[in-house]
């Protein structure tokens, strides 16, 4: 047994916190932010293999602290073990600078603004020179020839483009976490990012993630107890199976947590197609004592005291944001401009039996159901027998009748599954339908679900079944065609990917039973459909993530006609 020399211990620490140039960039920029910097400049060459230089205008250090900072476990952020609870700075272990200096040619230049500055030169962990230097308040750390004395590690570095991209990702995350700090990033003498301090968050997100991405996102904000969630999430219609971005922050600290990403995706349930993955930027605020950030060497993971509350806050925040018509239209009860930001009451509660009556017989919504019927007092008309159109103070509103009815039926079926209610009508003459072997197997497999939505059937020999009762979601409903398409979809897995089998079944039925594009509707039918749509939990989107509602603002019309 032997005590490890400091040089070896530092190199081991370097392996934990410094595995590539991007790790060095992360540690140094975090130190600069912790030092109260208002502007940070990062320069790298050859992906950071030959040069990493980070300069800031933070508090800086005096001579004694500059020398002490290169000793292991030297930190100004922790004094006693109790300080680890609720720590709100990025770096606090005191390992980054000595670890970096042990595997590079390292230079620290700093001053706290009182007297001369200090320049410390270190090679492979050995201090070679300490000298006074003139500079303004702040710190510059220069790292050259990273891993020059550990060739086994250096050979595992990736290409220059890969290492540059990794450094860029780190800079982007830190830029998003602190929009109050100006950040400049230069790679191989080419400016990659330059954002000012106190930049509006949407502007900064546009510079880091791209303006097209930001244009597809909507804001969210919600609190559950002491947990507050803010940020931006992608509209369901813009979510794709690939190419998405996700970023989590807690009290300004970036971290990773696949479970919380899944909680956010649960908020999209029945609003996006299975397999689509939305882009997410979520900022959590929790009491410092309710989160432990000291669970990962690189500080990439955290542990929450009340994890269920955090997951609930995230899922509810996403659900509420998607439930507002601001996601795709600016429409308000009574023709105002407040939007539909509050959650809807369940369909069965909000509109009684209206969802299962013919459109022109639908009962009016309850006075407290969140509907202001004056919104639909304006004339309605149908465009190409597909879109319901009406006017609001903001402009013209277009509602896709199929997508709207699909949303209504989906939520009604899910409510019926939960309550056990069954609505169907007996047939005077039973209908015989012949299926394929796969379709018959699918019908038998989901027979209970089919009966729970109103299809009563039984085998009739061979591959045939007999329908005795069917649902009646609207007057033009073709029960035979819907049953055929429904079992065909289920047999072929067309609506696969839903985590919940009942949700998959409800989505399949809603798509097949809803009124179709090209189907003429009377004005009472259109009005009834709109009332029922706005009583749902997520009126802006159908079960595939497509928009049900689109508004053309007056400003846009005036711009098109040259009036402004």
How would you sum up this structure, described in words?
The protein is α+β, with helices and mostly antiparallel strands. It folds into 3 domains: 6-202, 2-Layer Sandwich (Heat Shock Protein 90); 216-322, Ribosomal Protein S5, domain 2 (2-Layer Sandwich), CATH 3.30.230; 347-552, Ribosomal Protein S8, Chain: A, domain 1 (2-Layer Sandwich), CATH 3.30.1370. It is 33% helix and 23% strand. It has helices at 6-17, 21-34, 63-68, 96-101, 151-154, 160-177, 201-209, 211-215, 258-267, 307-323, 347-351, 401-419, 437-445, 447-452, 479-492, 501-513, 523-533, 554-560, and strands at 39-45, 51-56, 105-111, 117-123, 126-133, 138-144, 182-187, 190-195, 217-224, 227-234, 246-250, 253-255, 280-285, 291-292, 303-304, 381-383, 387-392, 395-400, 425-434, 456-459, 464-470, 549-553. Strand 11 and strand 12 (253-255) form a beta hairpin. Helix 2 (21-34) packs parallel to helix 6 (160-177) and helix 9 runs parallel beside helix 10.
Set down the secondary structure blueprint.
Elements: H1 6-17, H2 21-34, E1 39-45, E2 51-56, H3 63-68, H4 96-101, E3 105-111, E4 117-123, E5 126-133, E6 138-144, H5 151-154, H6 160-177, E7 182-187, E8 190-195, H7 201-209, H8 211-215, E9 217-224, E10 227-234, E11 246-250, E12 253-255, H9 258-267, E13 280-285, E14 291-292, E15 303-304, H10 307-323, H11 347-351, E16 381-383, E17 387-392, E18 395-400, H12 401-419, E19 425-434, H13 437-445, H14 447-452, E20 456-459, E21 464-470, H15 479-492, H16 501-513, H17 523-533, E22 549-553, H18 554-560
Parallel strand pairs: 1-7, 11-13
Antiparallel strand pairs: 1-2, 2-6, 3-4, 3-6, 4-5, 7-8, 9-10, 10-13, 11-12, 14-15, 16-17, 17-18, 18-22, 19-21, 20-21
Helix pairs in contact: 2-6, 6-7, 9-10, 12-16, 12-17, 13-15, 15-16
